[in-house]
Amino acid sequence: MNAVVATSVFAVFMVAAVVLGLLALRGRGKGGGLAEWSVGGRSLGPVFIWVLMAGEGYTSFSYLGAAGWGYNYGAPVLYVVAYMSCGYAIGYVVGPMLWGYARRHGLVGITDMVAHRFGRPWLGAVVAVLATVFLLPYIQLQITGMGVVLSVISYGAVSLNWAYFVAFAVTTGFVVVSGLRGSAWVSVLKDVLVIATLGFLALYVPLHYFDGYGPFLDRLVTEKSDWLTLPGHGGGGSGGSGLGELWFISTTFLNSLTVVIFPTTVAGYLGARNADALRRNAMYLPAYNVLLFVPMLLGLAALFVVPGLAGAESNLALFKLVVDSLPAWAVGVIGVAAGLSSIVPMAVFMLVIGTMWGRSVLSLVPRLAERQKSAAQVVVVVAGGLALLLTYTAPNTLVRLSLISYEGMAQLLPMVLLALVWRRLTFRGAFSGLIVGVAVVCVLVFSGNDPLRGVNAGLVALAANLAVALAVTFAGPRDADPRPDAEVLADDPVGDEDEDEPLAPTRAARGASDHRV
Predict the structure, then answer these.
(1) Residue 165: exposure state from Cβ atoms within 10 A (0-12, 13-18, ≥19)
(2) Residues 11-27: pLDDT tens digits?
(3) Rg (CA), the chain
């Protein structure tokens, strides 16, 4: 009976989310073109941008993975709060800059920006392929998270394998139809539920299991002190996790830089009506990070209530606390909040992959050049299918998947960000650095050397990337690009914002990237 009640509540809210996404398209014609589907027609106001970008930051990783890492290690998971807060500060400058650059030249993503900056359409295709490789683990992360949620709240009636498939099917159908605008609307529902459920659990769990925060924190300090300092539980000495001070600092630094050029973050930037909406959100978004402390704390509470969870099982720490003590309808509501925390970011990730391929890869094929949106929607289904296959064949803990994505995406920093503010960086330099960075991060991660002597492997690879990019740039010839700086470089569009209508692509932009429509 409990399984029926909880899963019914979950199903009703999932249907409501899909309906809400469809309602978002009212008055938009027949869904519009690629820009309407992928960046919401560049017309989302401050509230929708806030909930959309908060939705990307607060995922199933935050709901389940943060609790799991709190359970396994403790203090090292605080890197999430640190890098997201620093990333929002950097985004205050970078967000408006990328928004202005894309708007000025009629671009819809980082692959477009790279192709336009270096005047090589095929380079956008290369970046799209690389970005897809490093984004797939994040989609896998969300499928895993939602699958775990559905399986647990059904009290085991739905197997993990079927739960993973449901997560894939619901999200794929949702994003193909509703696009970015639908994700923004559903983010409102998700945020209301996340804030309400985490606020309730922050009070309920300590009171129910420990008679209050005082006894809980006293037991934590007395019995689990290793979890309260770096490198966390089991992290010291040879053979430990290596999650010490160097790892914490290097990971926070790397991820705070990477998050501002993450394709999904950029999709949020480009969906804004104006640059001021991005500046305001950069100031307000860190407040959302307060919520991250709750699952971390609940993961520590689970140490006393459900001891003995190991590996990927630790992702169940939060839900193990609630399934056995709350009525089924409450379990269902909490499951909905966690499920939507998977659907919203997974939808944006799949949408971004589809957009990159539709715009920068498949559009190079003449017959597909005029059908970018439909091509992108097909890619969404394929990408989701690949992530589902990875979920079945190569499962991993949620935090590990998150770190791999960031370490790989970080290698695009010089080509995407440095190139837009420094004209001297040449194509040869940026491309050579990218090859070296990707090679180094792959070798370190797959050989088990992450972190390397306590330093995040992605930062080691980025250092090699930059060194090669600068060496090749200064040693080789300058790029023969006749376009003026204003056509190639990005700047902060202060005082140059038209809220009503995006600018049309410039003639030079069309010439540099003639596969765009």
Answers:
(1) middle
(2) 998 888 888 877 766 65
(3) 22
